[in-house]
Amino acid sequence: MTEHVLNDSRVGRLIELALMEDIGMGDITSEATIAEEQLVRSTFLCKQDGVVAGLEVAALVFQYCDHGITFTPGIADGTAVPAGTSIGEVDGNTRGILRGERTALNFLQRMSGIATETRRYVEAVQGTRARITDTRKTVPGLRVLDKWAVRLGGGVNHRFGLDDMVLIKDNHVAAAGGVREALHRCRGYLLKNEIALRIEVETKSLEEVREALDTGGVDRIMLDNFPPALMRQAVELIRGRVEVEASGGITLQNVRDVAATGVDLISVGALTHSVRALDISLEFPVAP
């Protein structure tokens, strides 16, 4: 991922598709009720406590609708705000703003929901070595924005797709005939094809952890659905030789216990697959 996601061409394509889906042949209601030349200053209002994410995406949506529209953020992306906070203003042609309103809010509300939930997990493990990371459990097509929102919430990104890291999961292990054989095959493939990528392997028992360590060539070991007591044993067994990731069944209620075992990373699919949108609206001034 690029450091500044707006430089990613996928974002522009997402916005174009979203606007095409929403506008279709035109905004009939606005064209029927609003004068073509009318201008307005409107305000984004955050109606819940939360972490705001996606202001830059919302601004870009309005630019796609009308280059004359200006967006002035009231805060920076990634800022935690209380309910009732004005988080930005949109000035320009009324019809243009109304064309982009729903699409801008859809992106902004989803990204803010992800950032808010991520921040809750990050705060829950403060004081431990554990970092909160995401998964590939994202809405198809929205991964670049979902993962950006995780970063804005204080989390870190796991692999973006299947091509930027090797992750030997349980089905790979089963199909290859075990952890050792899967690692041997993987290392041979990378060497033969001159591919330099980090290797992570998923384990489901202390026996598989030992097998991964004895085989070598692994950069990170995932402990999948280990209870905290067993997870602590695995961390002690690994002794800092490779990174350790905890995964499976992580909730806000148990994440602190998981972090206390000494793992380096805790992956949470719920950050993106079960996100609850933050309540944000675009408010027009009340006519006299």
Features:
single chain, 288 residues, alpha/beta, Aldehyde Oxidoreductase, domain 3, TIM Barrel, 2 domains, 6-stranded parallel beta sheet, 4-stranded antiparallel beta sheet, 11 helices, elongated
Short description:
The chain has helices spanning 9-23, 28-33, 55-65, 94-124, 143-152, 170-176, 179-192, 206-215, 228-238, 255-259, 270-273, and strands at 39-46, 50-52, 70-73, 79-81, 85-93, 131-133, 166-168, 199-203, 220-224, 243-247, 265-267, 280-283. The chain is an alpha/beta fold and 288 residues long.
Describe this structure in words.
By secondary structure, the chain is of the alpha/beta class. It has 2 domains: 127 residues, Aldehyde Oxidoreductase, domain 3 (Alpha-Beta Complex); 148 residues, Aldolase class I (TIM Barrel). It is built from 11 helices and 12 strands. Helix 1 packs across helix 3 and helix 3 packs antiparallel against helix 4. 39% of the residues are buried. The mean pLDDT is 95.
Q: Largest sheet, if any?
A: 6 strands, parallel
CATH level 1 class label of the largest domain: Alpha Beta
Shape: elongated
- Count of DSSP-assigned helices: 11
Q: Portion of residues in helices?
A: 40-55%
